[in-house]
Amino acid sequence: MHTSPATYFWASTEFLKKIKIKTMGLLEKRAVKAFQDGSYKKLTDEINAITGYTIEFEINWDSLAEEGSADRYEDCFTQVYFTPLIAGLKEIAADEMGKEALKEALKKVIIKNEGGYIYGSSAYKFSNGVLTIDHQPCTNAENGLGERTTELTAILMKNL
Amino acid sequence: MNDLLKSVPAINKQELLFYIAEHFPATILSITTDAGRSYTGVVCTIGKVKNDETFLVLQVAGDRNELTTRFLHLTVGKIESIELINPADLTNILSLGKIVKSETYESSGKLETQRVLHSFSEAIFNAHAVNVGVPTIALPADGLKLNRILKLTQKIQQVIIDLLKEEDALTSWKARYSKIAFINTDSLAVKGVDNSVEIHFAFENIHAPEISAEELSDLLMSIL
Fold first, then answer.
1. Which of A60, A86, A140, B6 is 20 to 30 A off residue B216, Cα-Cα?
2. Rounded CA separation A115/B45 (Å)
């Protein structure tokens, strides 16, 4: 069957949307790099200090780089992904029993924005030692902090 | 509930009324006397008098089960039948507390359960300055079973705290035991083995009835 150029173009765009391939603009690239070089390292160092061992992080930066929000990445990435995690880990690792349980159970954290979730109740999954955080990067950042902390601590506690 | 009711032992009216008055005083009863008259209300008091007759005072309820200022005083021997109206926990009442309905469980983790096991020991020490030890138990992987163990631990903790309020029980426990173990079996049993108290119960069976505080307390007393 012959496919016209217009039809082919439409199919390609739909395909790209479906697999969620995003291309970061220069502003987004700079903001992500600034976060990676600054706060990200500090935050992961803080997490490793709390737990007493090194947790592997796998971050899908492309999915986090929301268009038009580059100036908010610093605050939003921290509040959405890291502050609840730090609070939950602090609570759990408050005693040696908690630290040991964490070391045994939590090996890796995956951070991404693929499901379009904006609440902690649907953003967290834990399976085979991997905590997956799938949340929109700049929605509900400050308002949802308490709910995310509660949900994240609960899901960790259930799996330790 | 029907299966549970099948295992309820036979009890007489007096035992039933004493138990309701003590544990479920808000239960509305419809009492029919041997003269054929019926009264609905809640038990105010029940007690024995010198000639061994048992008397009951019932606060009479109106048509909508609202309590009135009318009171009925009669001997239990004159009661022909007792109807329980919407009781809170029928199995518990009819078994005089020996069978209590199952809890519903949510998922818990091992860490949470271990923390409750540790706080069990701390709470009893804080209440009575006796070191009963952290309960040893093989923890299952299933979250619902862990939640049952967690809840049972809290109930057992309260039973022991209440039991050790008695000076002789406290002295005996201090002298004989420094460890405690929870062992998963089908039915409730308590054993004193060397310096350890062993509580045998269906810790992992989430469909089994809850532990009876009264029965556990009696069994613990028997090894002190």
1. B6
2. 62
Count the Cβ atoms, other than its own, within 10 Å of residue B80.
Answer: 13
CA distance A96 to B95: 44
Residue B84 has pLDDT above 70, yes or no: yes
B46 touches B102 (CB < 8 A): no
Query: How much is the pLDDT for B101?
Result: 65
pLDDT computed for residue A37 by the predictor: 95
Q: CA–CA separation, B133 vs A80, rounded Å? A: 42
Q: What is the mean pLDDT of residues B122-129?
A: 95
- Written as six digits, the tokens of B143 are 């979250």
Q: What residues does each domain of chain A span? A: 23-158
CB of A82 closer than 8 Å to CB of A137: no
Phi then psi for residue B206, to 5 deg, are -70, -10
Ramachandran sector of residue B53 (left: φ over 0; alpha: ψ -120 to 50; beta: rest): beta
Computed on alpha carbons and rounded to an integer, the radius of gyration of chain A in Å comes to: 18
Judge whether residue A3 has pLDDT over 60.
Answer: no
**Average pLDDT score over residue span A24-50:** 94
Q: Which residues of chain B have a CB within 8 Å of the CB of A157?
A: 108-109, 111-112
In the numeric block, the tokens 């929109």 are attached to A136
* Complex ipTM: 0.71
Angle between helices A83-92 and A96-105 (to 10 degrees): 120
- Contact A158/B at CB under 8 A: yes
DSSP one-letter string for B119-130: HHHHHHHHHHS-
Higher-confidence residue: B9 or A2?
B9
For residue A101, the distance in angstroms to the closest alpha carbon of chain B comes to 7
Q: For position B88, what pLDDT does the model report?
A: 81
CB contacts, 8 Å: A156 with chain B? 109
| In chain B, beta strands by DSSP E | 28-33, 38-48, 54-61, 67-75, 79-85, 179-184, 189-193, 196-201
Mean pLDDT of chain B: 90
